[in-house]
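Q: How do we represent a protein-ligand complex in a form that can be generated token by token?
A: Start from the inputs.
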Amino acid sequence: MKKSGQAFATFPKDFVWGVSTSSFQIEGATQEDGRGPSIWDTLAARQGGIANGDRGDPACDHYHRWPDDIALMRWLGLDAYRFSIAWPRLLPRGRGAPNPAGIAFYDRLIDGLLEAGIEPWACLYHWDLPQGLQDLGGWPHRDSAGWFADYAALCAKCFGDRVKRFATMNEFSVFTFFAYALGWGAPNISNQAEHLKAIHHTNLAHGAAVDALRALVPDAAIGAIHSVQPARPQSQAAEDVEAAALFDEVWNKGFPDAQLLAHYPPRIARLIEPYVRAGDMARIARPLDWFGLNHYSPMYVRAEPGGMRWGFEWGALPESLPKTDIGWPIDPDAFRQTLLDLTARYRLPIYVTENGYGVGSGEGADDPRRVDYLAAYVRAMRQAKRQGADVRGYFVWSLLDNFEWGAGYGTRFGLVHVDFKTQKRTPKKSAHWYRALIKAQ
Ligand code: GCO
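Then emit the structure tokens for the protein with D-gluconic acid bound:
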């Protein structure tokens, strides 16, 4: 067995090494310079909305400390940085007059990245929907496709001269499922019809945004980012196997199949039909340049009548599988297989836009288990590539410990430790490891 930190997997020279973050998770400054509220601000303000009563402030105070963060990226030797643009910073109510101060923030960030020789990869939506649009009905409202396309056009006009890599949204299946089936994520609704509408309309919004970006930035490479985690039945009982197949459609296939194959997978298709109008599938399936894969671990499910509005529940994990500190299975071979499966199914270059290791609070800068996890996953990626997977880049989630949604600041995924009281940043062992890996290429 090769130990992490020694023989590094080597990749082609043009393989892209990066890290990913998202606006609400790192920026803080939620009420500064004209930013409007997002649905996550609303959830965080509610009693019991987020663990420990945590809020989007201070997060990593990246809104002010971005030069330090770019310096960290430079030290790491990154080729690229994936961040997301906060819709409510650009359009405080979601539509209408743009906010110049919000645009200026991303101008500074993008210029700073380019000066550091780091390619900006901008994701237009990482879950922070302007509350003003939620008040109008949010994603279940069909007009959301137009709202998003207008916002995408604004991003293209403001940043398209310098940003050439765009992703429309991050993990469509996750935010729609959490928000509209589980009622955990903002805006906490649990209703299958609303969920189905949100699925279809975020797909329509994606297609409309691709058209807007293409028209305004003809030389852009445009993709979408999906969470794909193999769906496994808890047992071989027929109902568990069927539950896993349904979960696979809801979590893994519902969005990329629509966007890249122009149809919904069969079980979802039946349910979503009432919301699909003539011409919609062609509106959704616009040509794309790359596939963004967020991958962490396989997921286990079991049948449960009425469970999660869909008839399934989280299943027990096999005892034999090792797990991360927050209980996610560690299975690098599932990553290898996922890369091969996605290459065969969608035939696009794949960029791994998230992969990482989460720890409950208490972690300092000594994180050997994260190093082992990342090393094993990078090795699995190299193996997949050798076996024919068209994988072109890898972004660790995440640069910094940050606001981990419902878990607040209690769960840490960073390569760099953040003391949220002082905002002091300390590169962890894993940051040193990643730096050495990139250097060895
Ligand atoms: C998601 C997001 C990230 C998370 C990360 C760790 O998958 O939820 O893209 O924002 O922080 O995946 O859970």
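The domain at 16-439 is CATH 3.20.20.80 (TIM Barrel). The chain has one domain: 16-439.
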